[in-house]
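Sample pair:
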Amino acid sequence: MTGMHHMLVHFPEAFWALATLMILVGAWMPGRLAELSRIALLPVLVLSLLGALAAIVSGLLVWPLAANLASPMARNHLLMALWSLGLYTMLTVLVWRAGAAAFDGSRRWVLVILALSGGLLFATTGTLGGHLAGATTRFSELLRLTGWEVYTTFYSPGWVVAVMAMIGLACAVLGHRHKRPSGGRDD
């Protein structure tokens, strides 16, 4: 079963990387490639969520929750996996609800910021999973530079919490500024 988890985690990571690239292309490039990226984004995001659920469930079936919670690295791995799932779920809902309008005007910034944040989260998740499997990466050195020791730290550094709060506030302000009238369609 361990091998199944190791295999399954690559699906959401690949789909999330593809979705992030598609958001960047759809937000900043002109032409047919950008149009195709915007059109195909929702199915890719849905597939990524299905893959992530399968990967998380398989991980919880392989290793008991008590074992995961006993290790700071395993706790961080699980935490980052759940944060990644939450962030890409939010992106999926935004793209599903807004459709093509998700890339209009300043809304594209929300998608870009969330996608880049999600990229950092799933890269951290994969790095921690690699460490748990005995395959260290150089990305952990970048994490160390931010004040996060992958083997012992179980927290979000203060600057990460501040950045998350600022992003949330900015999203709320943008959402309020672009709020549709109550009688308008919500496609």
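The chain has one domain: 2-177.
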